[in-house]
Amino acid sequence: MKNRKIGIPRALLYYYYFPFWLKLLTELNLEPVISDSTSRELLDKGVKKSLSEICVPIKVMIGHLINLDQKEVDYIFLPRFRSIRKGVVLCPKFLGLPDMVKHSLPGLNTELISDQIDSKNDNIADYSNHQKLAAVLDIPKKEMKKALKKAAEFWQRYRKLLYKGYLIDDFAKIEDIEALENLISKFETDNNFPQSKRKKIKTAGKEEVVDIALIGYVYNVFDQYINMDIINKLKEMGVRVHTFSMVAEEIIEKELSSLRKPMFWEFTNKLYGAAEHYFKNDKIDGVIHLTAFGCGPDSMLGQILEVDAKENNKAFMTLRIDEQTGESHIITRIEAFIDLLRLKKEKN
Amino acid sequence: MKNLYLGVDIGSVSINIVAIDEANKLQFKLYTRNSGNPIELVKKGLSKFEDEIEIQNYQISGVGVTGSGRQLIAYVLGADTVKNEITAHARASTYYHPDAGTIFEIGGQDSKLIIVEDGIAVDFAMNTVCAAGTGSFLDHQAERLGVPIEEFGGLALEADRDVRIAGRCTVFAESDMISKQQYGFTKPEIIKGLSKALVRNYMNNLVRNRVLEGRYIFQGGVAANVGIKAAFEDEIDAEVTVPEHHDVMGAIGIAMLAKRDVKRSGKASSFRGFDLTEQQFETKSFECGDCANNCEVIKVIADGKVIAVTGDRCGKWEASLIGDSVVSSETDSRKEESSADKISKKKNKDPEEIEVDLYKVDPEEEKQVMKELEELEDQEELEESDKDEKEDNVLV
């Protein structure tokens, strides 16, 4: 029997969970099909079909679903992320995503499989989170559980590498599970350093290398189109880039415990924990908060970070991205920010 | 022969050219309105510069370009330093006023705030989505009221009282001004009200909850407006200094940065020479249809020869130029490097190859990795001590 094709949009939490999903589907003898990288054409289509007031990451998601629909996949896997932390939910746009998609894209030909994810933590491998997937594809419970376990283990290996300092960028372009497995094994075994820990970095004119923590959601920080390739721009300017995904869960939890209560939304909490960790770390020269225009949770987070940055005497900047921003404003801002950090460093 | 360093600031409203000597003394200064053809204006400016100084006594040892139009002009001039205007402005004002604490900068289409501590910039803000309260809005209003922009600020000082005008958005500000006019308020009163609204807007959008410290410097094209200066002084209740060369501070700053960069690298300037004033420049653009991004690619052509290609996200058009040995020597070496990098990355479509090449691009880096391996142990130690620290923090 030919393997059934399951489409996964390369948007939102794809960047966080893709090794898990790739492994899961492969273990179930299904063929994962990933939508193309975000491009102008893809975004334009998404913008046309979305509510005009919604944030850019959702518009990107809509674009990717249209893209998948054209790839003639059998199903599109679009889980409804409700919670990945006890008592905390995701942004309402995640909670309503499958419904929003149904109304934005009434002409979608492909059937969506939208399991509700309700998890106590980041590990979403519980069978209850994948009942619909099992039912629609007629997968026996035992087989499903086995595949979930393998996928979870694989995902943990990937996360350990992130905690070692690798960027999600280092993996996210790979769609082939074998290549991904090889890469992960390679990174695990060799003692190479990821860019975030390298001591010597080439800079133009032998300028000081600076360390910048780029705080933002995975779908903003790792979607190269939507953020104008900010990570590579920073790297070219001689910056070691650090992201929240490099901060181990324990550290984030510890930072969070100093809050009177966690915020209502997940990932916002993670960003907060990671940012606080970076604020206190002397090795980090500056923190950039990358946020999509009109992001609700970030309106809270941004203010808190601004105040805390000042308290910790850390250089801080907010970068806002939207669907139609030219590159020059991003370059001007990051360049000026880096110059400022360099001056400070050179003075000391 | 004396060394001169050229600084060019291509703003949305004005184009400024300065030349400084080794002692940062201003030898030439030109402020022109940007009427829409920056290349021609820069050429004219350079000719004027050539005429005014005795060029045989000097040599151009470095060229810096800043401002929103910096990219194109950098190719035309063969610039050594291309940098954003925030850094350039900060550099110049901290040079002239080492005791500066706060720099207000209002230009044609953007406004900036730079916070300075002990002579170095430590924080900045720039207006985001909206151009309310910048020079081009003032220009427009002056024209509407039939007042020359040079007299606009002075008129505000004549008014004894001001009228309240909405500062949040220029559309509202304009309708407010018209309705106040209909009520019979005088021009000076309205202009004073407008100046206050503009400063209020600046405070709300850029300063926000920052604490400002003296000395206060006000620069940029709008600093020529005494009405706005007075409104700033009123708002912060302190004296505001407008530097002598407030209108060309960006150009001065970038000239100083070019001097620094040239000295640091020890290389000769890549300035294309005064001959460029005789050359014919044109830009051509086309939409690249090779991928879904449909980038608008821009070619800069000097006397029929392509000197720069830009605008492509993937860098392949940019790189196509590098292959042409005749022109490669004229392009920025940094660009070459990054484009070459991109080519090598592009070749590796096979994921297996990416794997190998991800962190080992060249043998030099290999060596680096070996060195780093040796440093692995102490690095790990550092990290461990780091972790201990974190725990301490939590306990506290």
Automatic annotation (TrEMBL), chain A:
UniProt xrefs under Pfam families: DUF2229
InterPro entries cross-referenced by the UniProt entry: CoA_activase_DUF2229, Dehydratase_Activator_Redct
Domain of life of the organism encoding this protein: Bacteria
GO molecular function: kinase activity
Keywords for the protein's UniProt record, in alphabetical order: Kinase, Transferase
Occurrences of domain DUF2229 (ranges): 5-247
Annotated protein name in UniProt: Predicted nucleotide-binding protein, sugar kinase/HSP70/actin superfamily
Species this protein is from: Halanaerobium kushneri
TrEMBL record, chain B:
Example of a GO MF term: metal ion binding
Domain of life: Bacteria
Compositional bias of kind Acidic residues: 374-386
Spans annotated as Disordered: 325-396
Matches recorded under Gene3D superfamilies: 3.30.420.40
Annotated ranges, domain ATPase BadF/BadG/BcrA/BcrD type: 6-258
This protein's name: CoA-substrate-specific enzyme activase, putative
Cofactor(s) needed for function: [4Fe-4S] cluster
Keywords: Iron, Iron-sulfur, Metal-binding
Species of the source: Halanaerobium kushneri
Biased composition range(s): Basic and acidic residues: 331-343, 357-373, 387-396
Listed InterPro entries: ATPase_BadF (IPR002731), ATPase_NBD (IPR043129), CoA_E_activase_dom (IPR008275), Dehydratase_Activator_Redct (IPR051805)
Pfam families per the UniProt record, alphabetical: BcrAD_BadFG
Coiled-coil regions listed: none
Keyword Iron-sulfur part of the UniProt annotation: yes
Keyword S-adenosyl-L-methionine: no
